[in-house]
Amino acid sequence: MTSTTPRIAIIGGGPGGLICARVLQRHGIPVTVFDRDAYAEDRPQGGTLDMQEDTGQAALRAAGLEEEFAAVARPEGQEMRLLDHTGTLLFQRRPAPGEQRNPEIDRGELRRLLLDSLAPGTVRWGRYLRTLHPLGDGSHKAEFDGGAAETFDLVIGADGAWSRVRPLLSEHAPHYSGVTFVETGFGDADTRHPAVAQLVGDGSMMAAHDNKALIAQRNSRGRIRVYAAFRGSQDWALEHGVNLTDPEAVRAALLKRFTGWDDRLLALLRDADGGFVNRPLYALPVPHSWTHTPGLTLLGDAAHLMTPFSGMGANLAMLDGCELAQSLLRHAELDEAVRAYETAMLPRAARAAEGAARGLDNAIAPDAPQGSLRHLHSR
């Protein structure tokens, strides 16, 4: 990189943005992360992630965080079960003793690990990006809510599905995939819901049939997160007169939708502790790319939003962030570094997004779970 230290902003404090900041700081390059959350624990970070050896774990190694990750990861979370709607177990994979290929970590734990690795003050909380103004020389003026404004030589959009940076690079916006998840869950499942805990096991479980699925994943501290997945309109609740703010109305609607399923599976909805959160799944077109623009780039969901059926989302975001930082360290010119990063990242993202689309078609399908079963046996 040139002797003049560039002014670098990362918009978004998710795994990809934070790993990028960590790698840059580890090599003496200053960077500022702007996040719209008011503080680190402002909102739940979601479920568990499998950190894959050649993507997420590779990024953590490059960031010098391998030991910290191993201390909080859950290798037992690699277990996977596939059932049909009668509760019949069709496929089970248990990790071998000592296997560390894809250990699980809660999103919240991962975020804390990454935040703790950064210099104090790196993340500026409560900063929602309003506009970016190109200044003609490759730099951009970023304006935030409240009137704060700063100029940067490189703005990295790591701000997720509804990125504020993406519109300056691409005309494409996420589209509804045709599948909705409704999230709920159990706390202290081993003690309070032992039958559910036994059904789910130590990792993840999916039961599927006729364009529907019930998906459950073990999180840390005894929590189990559950998703009811189905094809249909993203306005399904409105169309069926269901008030999404009424947990019992949502529960009743879901139980009706899954009528005829085994009672052990219905318990995932019937006995869930918490409320229900509606999560329509969105994705960017495949492939998604843009014309290189000096001073701007994207990583993670901002660049290649896909449904979770790739199993690659956070892993790819972290690899993106790591490789972008390494490219900035390796190349003398800022623009040259970003071009090299995009040249490698965009084809890789397209392959993963194609896999995610196939995975969704297999999992939530008329003949489910046969497509998912074929895929699991082919691995």
TrEMBL record:
GO terms for cellular component: cytoplasm. This is Flavin-dependent monooxygenase. An FAD-requiring monooxygenase active on some tetracycline antibiotic derivatives, which leads to their inactivation. Hydroxylates carbon 11a of tetracycline and some analogs. It comes from the Bacteria. Consists of an N-terminal FAD-binding domain with a Rossman fold and a C-terminal substrate-binding domain. GO terms for molecular function: FAD binding; monooxygenase activity. InterPro entries: FAD-bd, FAD/NAD-bd_sf, TetX_monooxygenase. It is an enzyme of class 1 (oxidoreductase).
